[in-house]
Design a protein that fits this description.
heterodimer, A: mainly beta, 6-stranded mixed sheet, about 50% strand, globular, B: 7-stranded mixed sheet, 4-stranded antiparallel sheet, about 0% helix
Chain lengths: ~110, ~110
C-alpha cells in the first residue's frame, strides 16, 4: 500500500541555517507528491508539489525534487527565518500524509 | 475568497451525544474530504467525496457518516460520540483528484468527555 515516512522532529535551527526535511514514500506508479505547512492553530496550506519524476517544486524559498530512483521528496530551504516555524507534512497523491515534522527556528 | 469554511471551530460533547460538522467550499471543487489529526499520527482520511452524489470510506470511517449535500457542502456526522473521537477535524477540497493540492479549512477542535 501507499505510505510516507518523514524524519522525526522537532527540528531546531538558528535563523539563516540550511533546512532539510527528509521524506520517502512507498507507492505504485508515479504518484504526485506534495509538501504542506501548518502554522499553529491553522489548517494545512499547500507549499509545493511535483507531479512527475525529476520535477522540482518551489515556493517561498522552499524546494523539493521528485526522485523516483530513491523514492524521495526532501524539502530544502537555503536560509530559514523565524517565520518558517511550523509543522511540515509530506503527502503522497495528496491523500496519504506523513506524521509531520515540527520546525522551530530561533533568532 | 472564503475558500473552505468549517463550523464550528470548537465543540465539547458528552459521550453518546451526536453532532454534525459542517464544511462548505466556494471554489467549484469536485472532490471534498474529511480528515482527523491526532498527535504523532499525522492526518488520517475519514471519508471523501470524489464528486457530487458520491461518498467513499477512507482509512478510519468507523463511528462517522457523511453527506455530500451539493457540490459546495460536505458534512460529517458523529452519531454517538466516544472519547476516542477527540481530535481536530479538517475538511479539504480540490478540483482534480490526482494532480491538485488540497485547500484546507481551519479545523474543528472536538473534545468528547
Amino acid at each position: 500500500g501507499n505510505s510516507v515516512t518523514q524524519m522525526e522532529g522537532p527540528v531546531t535551527l538558528s535563523e539563516e541555517a540550511f533546512l532539510t526535511i527528509n521524506c520517502t514514500y512507498t507507492a505504485t506508479g508515479y504518484p504526485s507528491l506534495f509538501w504542506y505547512v501548518q502554522y499553529p492553530g491553522e489548517g494545512l496550506q499547500l507549499l509545493l508539489k511535483a507531479t512527475k519524476a525529476d520535477d522540482k517544486g518551489s515556493n517561498k524559498g522552499f524546494e523539493a525534487t521528485y526522485r523516483k530512483e530513491t523514492t524521495s521528496f526532501h524539502l530544502e530551504k537555503g536560509s530559514v527565518q523565524v517565520s518558517d516555524s511550523a509543522v511540515y507534512f509530506c503527502a503522497l497523491r495528496g491523500v496519504t500524509f506523513g506524521t509531520g515534522t515540527k520546525l522551530q527556528v530561533i533568532p | 475568497n472564503a475558500g473552505v469554511t468549517q463550523t464550528p471551530k470548537f465543540q465539547v460533547l458528552k459521550t453518546g451525544q451526536s453532532m454534525t460538522l459542517q464544511c462548505a467550499q466556494d471554489m467549484n471543487h469536485n472532490s471534498m474530504y474529511w480528515y482527523r489529526q491526532d498527535p504523532g499520527m499525522g492526518l488520517r482520511l475519514i471519508y471523501y467525496s470524489a464528486s457530487e452524489g458520491t461518498t467513499d470510506k477512507g482509512e478510519v470511517p468507523n463511528g462517522y457518516n457523511v453527506s455530500r449535500l451539493n457540490k459546495r457542502e460536505f458534512s460529517l456526522r458523529l452519531e454517538s460520540a466516544a472519547p476516542s473521537q477527540t481530535s481536530v477535524y479538517f475538511c479539504a477540497s480540490r478540483y482534480d483528484r490526482g494532480l491538485d493540492g488540497y485547500t484546507f479549512g481551519s479545523g474543528t477542535r472536538l473534545t468528547v468527555v
